[in-house]
């Protein structure tokens, strides 16, 4: 219960940050957008280092099972996280497409349905939450300050990227026994989600492929550019 209380307190605080980021993106002068963009990139990178350092010291103190193979940044939210940093830096549409569709769905779901896996302290709760929250924050910046949005082609770009990446990541999972991209086992937090009525491998993967376009189309409507 303490974990959930902390989680939703952080969520409320980050909701304010998201709103302020969007507002500031609309108000900031064009000459200052690059500087603030670098600031967002910087704190996002610092957060990732803080997350890994926290896990490492948690393992030293016997609070967390740190295993390098399961700590690699190979989940969909990781690709969203770093794609958005590239979108801020380069302002290229393809990076925003990947970051937006992978992030707006996965990050929001991670915030709304939190799990306590790997949560053993306030610090671990903060860093786990910030990884998802910074995705939304950076989306707010891209949309408001950089006037980035999506076309119907953006959905296809994200779909193609997903299906290209599941090949090497699926092979990695098979060799190492990991579950990146949830290709070996359905995510535990979604087993009761009506969007995922099938949890038997590999049929839930085909179901996700089936609903990808209508699911992403809903999010596309919020930032459509065509």
Task: Summarize the structure in short.
This protein is an all-alpha fold and 226 residues long. It is 71% helix and 0% strand.
Which features would summarize this protein structure in a list?
single chain, 226 residues, mainly alpha, 7 helices
SS content category: mainly alpha
Sheet with the most strands?
none
Tell me the count of domains.
1
Give the proportion of residues in helices.
over 70%
**Cα-to-Cα separation, first versus last residue:** 45 Å
Strand content: under 5%
Judging from the principal axes of the Cα atoms, what is the shape?
A: globular
Number of beta strands: 0
- The average pLDDT score comes to 87
Could you characterize the architecture of this molecule?
By secondary structure, this protein is mainly α. The chain has one domain (2-222). It is 71% helix and 0% strand. It is built from seven helices and no strands. It has helices spanning 2-27, 30-60, 76-90, 93-112, 122-144, 152-176, 203-222. α3 (76-90) packs across α4 and α6 runs antiparallel to α7. The longest helix is centred in the N-terminal third of the chain and has 31 residues, at 30-60. The radius of gyration is 18 Å and the shape is globular.
Secondary-structure blueprint of this entry?
Elements: H1 2-27, H2 30-60, H3 76-90, H4 93-112, H5 122-144, H6 152-176, H7 203-222
């Amino acid at each position: 219960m303490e974990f959930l209380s902390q989680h939703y307190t952080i969520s409320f605080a980050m909701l304010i940050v998201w709103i302020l980021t969007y507002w500031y993106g609309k108000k900031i002068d064009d000459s200052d957008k690059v500087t603030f963009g670098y600031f967002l990139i910087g704190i996002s990178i610092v957060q990732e280092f803080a997350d890994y350092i926290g896990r490492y010291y948690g393992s030293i103190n016997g609070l967390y099972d740190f295993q390098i193979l399961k700590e690699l940044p190979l989940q969909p939210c990781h690709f969203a996280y770093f794609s958005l940093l590239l979108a801020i830096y380069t302002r290229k549409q393809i990076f925003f497409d990947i970051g937006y569709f992978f992030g707006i769905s996965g990050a929001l779901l991670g915030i709304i349905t939190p799990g306590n896996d790997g949560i053993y302290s306030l610090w671990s709760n903060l860093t786990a939450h910030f990884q998802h929250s910074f995705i939304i924050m950076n989306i707010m910046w891209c949309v408001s300050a950089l006037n980035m949005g999506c076309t119907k082609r953006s959905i296809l770009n994200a779909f193609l990227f997903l299906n290209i990446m599941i090949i090497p990541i699926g092979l990695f999972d098979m060799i190492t026994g990991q579950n990146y991209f949830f290709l070996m086992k359905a995510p535990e937090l979604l087993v009761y989600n009506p969007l995922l009525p099938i949890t038997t491998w590999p049929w839930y993967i085909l179901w996700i492929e089936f609903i990808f376009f209508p699911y992403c189309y809903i999010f596309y409507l919020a930032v459509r550019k065509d």
